[in-house]
Write a structure and sequence with these properties.
By secondary structure, the protein is an alpha/beta fold. The protein contains 15 helices and 5 strands. A 5-stranded parallel β-sheet has the order 2-3-4-1-5, sandwiched between helices.
Amino acid sequence: MSVVTPSPTVPSLVLVSGPEEVLAERAVASTVAQLRDTSSDLEVIRLTASTYQPGDVGIQTSPSLFGGDKAVVVQAVDEATDELQADLLDYLAAPAPEVTLIAVHRGGQRGKKVLDLLRKQGARVIDCPAIKSDRDKSDFVMNEFRRQGRKATPEAVRALIEALGKDVRELAAACSQLVSDTHGVIDDQLVEVYHGGKVEATGFRVADAAMAGQTGDALRLLRHAIATGVDPVPIVAVLAAQLRQLVRVGSAGRGSSQQLAKELGMAPWQVDKARRLVGHWDAEGLGRAIRAVAAADFEVKGGGRDPVYAVERAILTITTARTGVRR
């Protein structure tokens, strides 16, 4: 069966596949925008799995009394009811020439028959993979600035991820804000002005000072963080993450930062940072530091009486273990 193409650039069937919501939303918006380029009176209809009524696909894809093209966006096909799946399969047996069907599937086995038929029918597939690792986030941020016509230093990318790395949507919004509000190359000083006070950024500053052996600075930053409402748990988590990175990079052998970053699922700047630090540690010191952070993790999550003291003790152990090494 041939698939009719209502637009020179967009096929009549589009599958947006993957769990990253920001990318999926952009894929849908971009597809609709392309359709509007050739059909200014395009009618856009959105259906969601949670509110779907049997027969809606047939109703919404039927020809309009006034003519014109349609784009029917079906959200969350991965949560589709049996009725929605059946209606989609029926529609895909004979797609309407004046309709573009855009199906959004975030992953999993539900709705697999619909996905398989869309692919068999030659649907355009737009992948939206999860952005989880620091390398993924670094690539995402660099691409955000690039697509908006701006350059950012690696240090700026690192600072943004440290401040906002838990939320991809917030990362995207921060990139857009920096592009809108500033001029020239975006560096870490600009990021500090806008986002330096975030909880995550504070935790990274504590960890950076500790890993560098700067006991006084690490304790001062920790006390300031606690005084401004930062929970000890994320600080310990950052300490643990940085120690793990030291171990992974230290045992990875030689190779370019780009190559190791790809192998280890890290960002290149994280590899470079770990390489600068690893020479100040030996196996015994790393073992002491890791055990101290593990104990602090237990205490800050309810196993101890004084979470702040637990973090302070871990910081003292880390800085002592590091500076105690003689090279």
